[in-house]
Fold this protein.
Amino acid sequence: MKVLTLVSLLLLFSSLSMAQPPSAAKPQETPPPAKQAAADDAPTVTKHSVRVGSKQLNYTVTTGFMPLKNAVTGDTEARIFFMAYTLDNAPASRPLMFSFNGGPGSASVWLHLGTIGPRRVKMLDDGMMPPPPYELEDNQQTWLTETDLVFIDPVGTGYSRAAKPELASKYFGVEGDIASVGEFIRLYLGRNERWMSPLFLVGESYGTTRASGLSNYLFDRGIALNGILLISTVMNFQTIRFADNNDLPLVLILPSYTATAWYHKRLSPAMQSRSIEQVTQEARQFAANEYMPAMLRIDTLSAAERASLTEKFSSLTGLSRDFVERANFRVDLGKFQKELLRNERRTAGRLDSRFKGIDRDAAGDTPDTDPSMNAIRPPYTAAFNAYVRGELGFKVDTEYFILGGGISSPWNWNVANGYADTSITMKDAMAKNPYMRIFMAQGYYDMATPFYAAEYTLSAMNLDPSLRKNVSIAYYESGHMMYIEKNSLAKLKADAAAFITNSLRK
């Protein structure tokens, strides 16, 4: 990747972390002196090129802040950091995609430097952490071949901040977050004359919650989307919140338990001989046809019914019959992570259950940390900080909040007695805009946003039959960030490219 820096006008983009550029990516010109950029400075603009297959992509990166102003007073209330990638000399019809991650409290670094941008953090082929120091490499699977890209860091993530501490809570909630990101998109379209571009959103994890909410928020302000890509989907939080008197997540995560047990070879020889698709389908059927009905009357099951349920639950999860019985079939995520690999003195990952962790106390009831997050956070943190300052010439001393640290007050879920659910607003948006397509990408080994929970949410949306054809789902033999695994990275790119193309057909 060749780099040529210049600092000037424009404003754009947000998110994702990169490592030290490899020797092949030497700047043609020394980056500008390390001035400390103020939030109101002109954005930093740099020119780059990358070869993807037989194609050379020449592109411009704009790095800076978008001010959000009070509509009455005109005072700046927050600044959103962004990073925008635009292909040089592209036709006016070129699509534009806005990207963000989740949390809430996560910067857009994961999608940016993991799968979508032209540079990516170099991991081991299976997605495991390499030894430090970390590297950046050209991304042969970048989505820049299909669309221009704008990475957004919502307020409280990345470099994005409220102008005053007392204003921060305005943005730390489901509705405030959607409104601020929606306002960023409106401003970006106007300032960059992109109102007539085909428009896409891509969100990961809580970013799918944000994207589904934005679908209707934007439409009601005259901004219609061509498509939304939901990566590791959660729209209805009742499906993933383990709590007393909420058995739904217990049922919906069970197929993910099966996938995890299969990966770690904890199932019977007969089950291990089958494919991941086959064993998870059997788990789906058990969850829907036996486990869920049993949970409706769990304390009144006969001895024979309990014995049958215990046997099937154990055979599909790799957990002992005794443990299943003692848990009364309520095996939440923490219990499963700790119990599945207990005889190895290891715990299974949450974001990616292929990863194994080592706890201080092997006899404990819940994991100390998530080994899958431990494996990716240092490479992405180091990579982003090196990339934004070195290759992009954007130099500030402000801490870049990768995940957490910037949310200074409790998140407002905007629910009085229940669970946040933006699937309702997406349903409304799809009814208003029948041309909008939805793509869902789900990892088999993701236990944070389980694939069966996403399937359930989709099936419960009560979509009009004419709109169901607008939704597609793809599955990956990886976890929450499925793109850290080499084969899944390539599959996700191919799936996304096909989705974008199909969404543009008249």
